[in-house]
Amino acid sequence: MISGVVDDGVVAGARLTDLVSLGVLASSVPRDVVDEVIVAAGRQAKRSDGKLPPHVMVYFVMAMALFATEDYEEVAARLTDTLAAWGCWDQQWSLPTSGGITQARQRLGAEPLAELFARVAVPVAGELTRGAFLGPWRLMAIDGFEWDAPDTKANGAEFGYGGSGESRSAFPKVRVVSVSECGSHAMVDAEIGGVTGKGSGEQTLARRLYGRLQPGWLLIADRNFYTWQDWCTAADTGAELLWRVKSNTRLPVLGSLYDGSYRSVLIEAKIRGRARQALIDAAARGEDLPPDQARIVRVVEYTVPDRDGNGKGELIRLITTITDPTAAPAAALAESYHHRWEHETANGQIKTVLRGPGRVLRSKSPDMVRQELYGYLLTHYAISALICRAATEADIDPDRVKFTRTVRIVRRRIADPAAFSP
Known about the structure:
Radius of gyration: 24 Å
Helix content: 25-40%
Largest sheet: 10 strands, mixed
Distance between the termini: 23 Å
Strand content: 15-25%
Order of helices and strands: EEHHHHHHHEEHEEHEHEEEHEEHHHH
Mean pLDDT: 87
Number of helices: 15
Low-confidence stretches: 1-20, 415-422
C-alpha cells in the first residue's frame, strides 16, 4: 500500500522509482487499445518481418516526448531493452536508421495517435484525490497554448505564423486547446489547429470540445471563451459551468442571494430592446424561458486587490449553471475558479519539462506535427495519471509530487524492462 511521501520522491511502502519506467506509458496506453486503433485506421503492418511495426512506433512517438533533445536513433537506442522485453517484435531486432524511423512515422500517421488519445485519456482523480472535486462535481478546465513548428512550406501553409510584417514569428505556430482535470493535471481532450485563417482561434477550437463534455464535470473557463452559443452548447451536455466573463457583459440582477451572489439571465445577443426587457421581466417573475433565447445563471463577483501591481483591484465576474447557493456557496466557487491555473501548470509541464524551454517541434509536415503533439499529450497523460494515483494513495495533493522529478526518473530508467506489459 502506498501511503505517505517525502521530498526525495520516496513513497512509503514503495519507491516512486520502482513504479516509473517506460511501463508508465504502457500502463495508461495499453497494447490492446493500440492495436485496435491501428486496425481501425487501416495502418496495420504490410509485412510481418518489418523492423518497426505500427504498435512499436506508437510507443516510439510517445518516447520522443520524453527525449525531445535526442535524435531518432538515440531515442530508439534507449528503448531497445525495454521493447525487447515486452516482445514487441518476433525477430532479432537491430537499431533502425533515422531514415527508417521517419518512414515508419509517416506510415503510421497522426490518426491512430489522435484516436488513441480519445480512447485512453479519461479523468483519473478519485473521490479521495485532494483538490479534485467541488462537492459532487469534478473540477475541469479549458485553455489553449501554442507550439513552434519547423519553418517548412507545408507547416507554414497549414498553421500560419504569429504576428505580421516585421513582427511575424520566426516559426509557424500550432495552437492546441485542451480540457484538463484540475486535480491530476491530466489532459483528457484536445483539438489542434493553426493560428491564422478561418477556424484558427481558441474559441473555434474550443467549440469542437464542448459537445464532448460529461455530466458530473464542472468546467472552468477564462473570460475569452464566453459566447452565448458556446455557453448553451456546453451547458446542454449536462456538465456544470463556471466561466469568467468580461466586465462589460450585461448581467441584470434578478435577486440577491444570502452568500453574496445573485441571480441573473443570459440573453441571446441579437435580442434587444423590448424583446430583451420582456425576457428579463419574465426571468424576474420566475417564468420558464425559451432556452434558445435566455438562460438563468448565478453570478459571483469579487475583487482581487492589486493583482497587476498598479494599486488597483481586479474585478472577477463568474457565471455558473449551479444556481443553488447551498450546493456551492459563492466563496467555494471563487476558490474553485482559481484551480483553472492548474491547466497553466499542465501546459508548462508539457512545454517546459517535456519539450524543453524554447525548443521547436521536430516534425516537418502537418500530419507529423499532429502525430508528435498527440505523443506529447499521451505521455503527459500517462505521467500525470501515475502521479495522481500515487498521491491519492498517499493522501496528499498531487501538486506535492514534482512532475519534473518524476520525468527525470522515467528518463533514467527507460532502459529497464517495464513493470507493466503492453
